[in-house]
Amino acid sequence: MVPAIACYAQPANARVETYNGKEYYIHTVKKGETLSEIAKKYKSPLADVLNSNPGKEDRIDIGDHIKIPVTAKNRRKDPPPPIHHTATGKGHMVEHKVEKGETIYGIAKKYKTTQEAIYELNPEAKNGISPGLILKIETTVVNESITHAIQNNKLVEPKVLFDHVVLPQETVFSLSRKYNISQDSIKLLNNGLTEGLKANTTIKLAAPESKLALYKSWEVTPVSVVNNNQASHLTMVKPDTLLNTNIPSVFKTGKKNVYNVGVILPFMLDKNKDFMESQDQKARLTLYEPTRQALDFQLGVEMALDSLKKAGVNTNLRIFDVQKDSASYKKIFQTSEFKNLDLLIGPFDWIELTAKAAKENKIPMLIPVACSNKVMLDNPFVFKSITTASVIADESSRFLISNFKNENIILVDGRGKNDAGVQKAYKKHLNKYFFEQTGKKDSIRTLQLDFLSTNTIESILRKDKMNVLIVPSNDFSYVSSTLSNLHKFLSKHYHKDYKVTVFGTDEWIKWDQMDILHKLKCNVHVPAPTLVDFDTLHVHKFIKGFRNRYKTDPDKYAMMGFDLAFFWMAGYAQHGLDFSNMVQNYDITMNQTRFIFTKMNETSGCLNKNVYILKYENYKLIPQKND
User: Fold this and answer.
1) How confident is the model at residue 246 (pLDDT cuts 50, 70, 90)?
2) Are residues 496 and 573 in the same domain?
3) Which of 216, 351, 429, 557 could link 296 by a cystine bridge, Cβ 3.0 to 4.6 Å?
4) Cα(499)–Cα(521) distance, integer angstroms
5) For the chain, what is the mean pLDDT?
């Protein structure tokens, strides 16, 4: 039997076209074909085919025209004369998918080009266009007027391939989310993955060139779990806030050979009976959500303590599993294991009840979730790691006045039912900081607007200043319509002289359904109590260590568990139990949280006052300086 080698040879009927001086074979996709097969057929590396066809890495359709670079390896001996497409060199090549009702005239106007230029690049369009047809267009426009092209990934970075070692429990879906690549693309790059993913095997993934180094750094390699960058942060003392060491401490004092650390969490294992007994592998992929959160938090704590053990810090970890009822908590509080703790981390529920028990037994208690400030009153043993809405309003106002006090600042009151408290807090703090820096009282302009219309926008904005609209509302409909109307207003060419910055709330970060282009055009800023910056070295190291240890990726609960345990126990390593009375001296940035603890008063607990100010820029959230 003779192998059909000819099927992989360069097809004799493929036409050759030239773009920007480079020759390409033009292949018309047939039923059942994949990019991998097409690349092999033309003796071309798959990466070159992907780079030559931006936007096609996710899927190809029957009839699509695929460009394959002509090289010395695949060049025909007697090629037909190439068709030349001469680019002006003044624009970007994009692909536009024709939609119902569109015309060549309208498309040319949209991309600020001519009908003739479109016909030159797409001769088949002279016979008419229909929905779904892909047109190649050269354009100089790279802004909201071609959002369709951007949203459909037609203006994309060239992709490069890299190797990934599959971890246990990884799925095509989890890889697609982590590396921002479609599931179809992963299968396409790996011959369909007909047998599925297998742990410890190597597969191919594709990434933009700018992300390649970051993605490759996540690959599991033997690394030290101890984070040197974080350890060095423990020397970051705030000299202007050094405590008077002569003040009597209410905490236990001295260093110990072994520290007793407790983690109190609602594992709710009874809710996972079906999960544990199921023989169906798919059914076993999903834990009860509170259980998953508690387990991930525990893994983060364990990784931190093991890291510090290598540095000579010994701990005895005690995990307390509680239910949703107060009785299970009270039962734990009576045990000797609880009473002998040197540090308590948690819980997620029944916080006031637990804080009372911590005070009675003089146990520093680190609260990992947002809760009322009431829990800190007259209880110096409580340390809140997540700041409150009132502190966010305070720190945000300080940032706004420090950066925009000479601009047109407007506090927009949407009159939402649940926004009254935060509106009042912003008004108070904005006027406070404005008076401190300018000497002017009650000067912040407040507008009560049920709806921000185009006419209203024009009446309140100024062309000679930056217009800072503070919209502290968590009403999605109101915020969405406000940004949409602002976007429309600013997109008009006769409004190009207006400059706008919109300041929102941390809730906006969760609204994935809100148009990102509106956030970008309106220069949206938002506050946030936590931030994971994946571009920093210490976060890279943490992720690598976590993946190497647990064969999965850390979530926000794992990061918080690690940050709290590492920060506090590293403090114990340097100062012993006295660290609890010295924590205000430190300003330390961990993986997800920056710790800047401050006491409410002499008899109260401490609150982490850190607030990040983030700006939507280049389709990402960028931290702004807020010292």
Assistant:
1) very low
2) no
3) 557
4) 10
5) 79
**Do 42 and 13 meet the contact criterion of CB atoms below 8 Å apart?**
no
* pLDDT, greater one: 89 or 122: 122
CA distance linking residue 517 with residue 491, whole number of Å: 11
Contacts of 358 (CB under 8 A, 6+ apart): 344, 364, 365, 379, 381, 382
Mean pLDDT, to the nearest integer, of 106-119? 81
Q: Is the pLDDT of residue 196 over 50?
A: yes
- From 99, 117, 142, the end of a domain falls on 142
Beta carbons of 446 and 472 less than 8 angstroms apart: no
Point out the domain boundary residue: 504, 528, 552.
528
Is the confidence at residue 85, as pLDDT, over 60?
no
Helices (H), 439-527: 454-460, 476-491, 516-521
Question: Of 83 and 622, which is predicted with more confidence?
Answer: 622
Same domain, 138 and 183: no
Q: How far apart are CA 505 and CA 412, in angstroms?
A: 13
Q: Please report, for the domain that includes residue 38, its CATH number.
A: 3.10.350.10
> Strand 258-265 to strand 343-345: parallel, antiparallel, or no bridges (unpaired)?
parallel
Residues 543 and 522 in one domain: no
Give the DSSP letter of residue 390. H
- Give residue 277's pLDDT: 56
617: in domain: no
Q: Can you give the residue range of the structural domain that contains 78?
A: 5-142
Same domain as 200, residue 239: no
Which of 53-57, 141-145, 447-451 is the least confident region? 141-145
**Amino acid identity at 401:** I
Domain of 340, CATH number, reads: 3.40.50.2300
Closest CA to 429 of 325, 503, 514, 318: 503
Nearest to 350 by CA among 376, 382, 326: 326
Q: Are 525 and 531 in contact (CB under 8 A)?
A: no
Residue 118 exposure: Cα atoms within 13 Å on the Cβ side? 26
- The arithmetic mean of pLDDT across residues 460-475, rounded, is 91
Cβ–Cβ contacts within 10 Å for residue 25, how many? 24
Query: Residue length, the chain?
Result: 627
Same structural domain, 278 and 312: yes
The encoded tokens of residue 488 equal 């429309």
Cβ-contact 226, 176 below 8 angstroms: no
The reply to whether 154 falls in a domain is no
Q: Between the CA of residue 396 and those of 151, 468, 476, 486, what are the distances in Å?
A: 32, 13, 20, 22
Total domains in the chain come to 4
Is the domain of 519 the same as that of 409?
Answer: yes
- 619 located within any domain: no
Q: How far apart are CA 599 and CA 379, in angstroms?
A: 10
The two three-digit tokens of residue 303, written as one number: 């990784």
pLDDT greater than 60 at residue 228: no
pLDDT tens per residue across span 316-333: 999 998 888 889 899 999
What pLDDT is attached to residue 605? 92
Give the pLDDT score at 122.
79
| Claim to verify: residue 308 and residue 417 sit in the same structural domain | no
Q: Is 523 found in the same domain as 429?
A: yes
Cα of 351 vs its chain's centroid, Å: 29
What totals of helices (H) and strands (E) does the chain contain, helices first? 21, 24
Alpha carbons 277 and 257: distance in angstroms, whole number? 42
Q: Which phi and psi (to 5°) does residue 183 adopt?
A: -65, -35
Give the residue with greater pLDDT, 3 vs 469.
469
- Short-list 156, 208, 214, 205, CA closest to 184: 205
Domain assignment present for 91: yes
